[in-house]
Design a protein that fits this description.
Blueprint lengths: L1 H21 L21 H6 L3 E2 L24 E2 L22 H13 L17
Antiparallel strand pairs: 1-2
């Protein structure tokens, strides 16, 4: 019985490891949902060593306004995160009930903005005025 359990456990672990290393279902992601896992210069071995998925993207045919031959005009990553990874950008809240600063702070910044427009009637704008 113990030997049977050991064989079943070893087979299950082996299958899980193969799927984790070689991709399997966790790498079956639509192009529109892929997000970069590698950096410029990442190759297949480096990508998979980091636990990411690798799938080369076919270059668009030349002459249709696409990138040069070999390019990827749609921005689809070759090395991308699997379904096991959570996209950190999905938690960003893009709306807020207020601007995030007080009216007093706004008034000070607006006054500084106006003070640095059209310096001495020249039309110049000072991006970082000296404090002299």
């Amino acid at each position: 019985m113990l030997r049977q359990f050991s064989l079943i456990f070893a087979a299950a672990c082996s299958a899980a490891l193969c799927r984790a290393q070689g991709g399997g279902d966790r790498c079956d992601i639509p192009n529109s949902e892929k997000w970069d896992c590698g950096i410029v210069g990442t190759n297949e071995a480096m990508c998979e060593a980091d636990g990411c998925c690798w799938q080369p993207v076919q270059a668009a045919a030349a002459g249709n306004g696409s990138a040069a031959a070999g390019g990827n005009s749609k921005g689809i990553p070759w090395c991308y995160h699997s379904t096991d990874d959570k996209n950190p950008c999905s938690d960003i809240v893009w709306s807020a009930p207020d601007p995030g600063f007080t009216q007093e702070y706004y008034d000070i910044m607006y006054a500084n903005y106006l003070a640095n427009l059209n310096i001495q009637g020249s039309g110049a704008v000072v991006a970082a005025p000296d404090e002299e």
